[in-house]
Amino acid sequence: MSGVELGVIEGYYGRPWSWEARREAVARLAPHGYRFFIYAPKSDPFLRRRWQEPHPAPAGAELRAFSTFCRERAVRFGVGLSPYEIYRDFGEAAQAALSAKLAELDSFGLDDLAILFDDMRGDLPGLAASQARIVHWIAERTQASRLIICPSYYTDDPILDRVFGQRPDRYLEDLGALLDPAIEVFWTGEEVCSREISPGHLDRVASQLRRKPFLWDNYPVNDGPLMSPFLHVRAFTGRPAAIGPHIAAHAVNPALQPTLSQIPAITLAESYRQGEAYEYGQAFLRAAREVAGEDLARALLLNTTQFQGFGRDRLTEENVARMRARYERFDHPAAREVLAWLDGAYDISLAEIEAT
Question: Is residue 1 part of a domain?
Answer without folding.
Answer: no
